[in-house]
Amino acid sequence: MKKYFNSIRKHLQVELAKSARDYLKIGLSLYHDRRSIGIQAPIGNLGIAIELMIKTYIAKNNPLLLFQGLPTELKVLFTCPDSSIKSFHWRRFDIDLRSFLYKTIEVWAYCPTKKDISFLSSFDMERAERVRKTIEAAKVKSKELKHDISLTSAEGWDEYNTECPICDSEGILTGNSDFHVLGEDETNFEIFLDFSADSFYCSECGLVLNDYKELELAGMDISYDRSSELDEWFEEHGPEPDEF
Ligand SMILES: [Zn+2]
């Protein structure tokens, strides 16, 4: 179980750190524009970045403390990863762990006041309004495009091409790629390669979406299947783990 423990702990740590970095980047960028957009959006993003940094630290040191209500099997895995229990079928839990299906802890042991709840709600409304304006601006610009649909090429595993929802050109998603395994036993399983998107940019109509919530608000998917590239993935990242 040790090998799987190390693999999943690393995955949780990397994903949380990437999300923290993205929220920090957006928060700082919004902070510099605070005169035009107000202070709530920067503070909201920076607050989320701090929470994710704390969770990254917790995941690195003890993933058990990161989640609430884990199944007993996973509690055993995180408590004694060195033990070897033949009946433990981690694949049943892998996709749920990797996609953060299990609820994580509340970092702030604090009951929000009415003022806080109102702030959070206006933060969401500001985000929706910002995305609406971005989409409207992109629609206006897309009508002025005179040339044929443009194609851009994503590079590496942190980018992926997809059709722009406004102008139909190829835009670039940024995010990260990782594989997951589905199956019930050591001999009967299938491996998939996923791309999890956390931002999008179209150089033609200028549509920019800064995080996965903005992607969802614009009606875009945040998860993409790139299993057709599994061979290249394992060529670059080492051979397929035999124990999967
Ligand atoms: Zn576009």
Q: Can you walk me through this structure?
A:
This protein folds into 2 domains: 1-110, no CATH class; 145-244, no CATH class. Strands 1, 2, 3, 4 and 5 form a 5-stranded antiparallel sheet that branches. The protein starts with a helix and ends in a 7-residue tail after the last helix. The chain is an alpha+beta fold and 244 residues long. The model has no long low-confidence stretch (mean pLDDT 84). The protein is flat. The chain has helices at residues 2-32, 34-37, 40-61, 72-79, 91-98, 114-144, 212-217, 230-237; strands at 159-163, 170-183, 189-201, 208-209, 223-225. The chain is built from 8 helices and 5 strands, in the order ααααααββββαβα. Zinc ion binds next to helix 6.
Relative strand content:
15-25%
The ordered H/E elements are HHHHHHEEEEHEH
Stretches where pLDDT is under 50 for at least 5 consecutive residues are: none
CA-based shape: flat
| Percent of residues in helices | 40-55%
Mean pLDDT: 84
What's the domain count?
2
Largest β-sheet summary:
5 strands, antiparallel
Bound chemical compounds: zinc ion
Kindly provide the radius of gyration, computed on alpha-carbon positions and rounded to a whole number of angstroms. Answer: 20 Å
- Look at the helices and sheets and give the structural class: alpha+beta
The end-to-end span amounts to: 11 Å
